[in-house]
Amino acid sequence: MLSIRFRFLQIRTMSSATSGKPQLDNSSNFLSELPHRKHPGILNLNIVRLPKEAENAAEYILKKFNIQHLEEYAASLTNYLWSRKRPIEDTDLRIKASALETAFRTALPESEIVTPAHNRKIKHQVLTALRKQTYNWQPLSYTEQISLMYLAARFDGGYAAVTRVLQEIYKRVPDFKPESLLDFGSGVGSVTWATHALWGTSVKEYMCVDTSASMNQLSELILRGGEESGDMHINNVYYRQFLPVSPKMQYDLVTSAFSLNELPNLSARQKTIQALWRKTGGFLVLVENGTKEGHQLLMEARDTVLRGGDKEIWDNRPACIFAPCPHQLKCPRLQKLPCNFVQQYQSLPLKWVRTTNYINTTFGGGVCRFDSYLISHRTHLNAGRSFPS
Question: What average pLDDT does the chain have?
Answer without folding.
Answer: 85
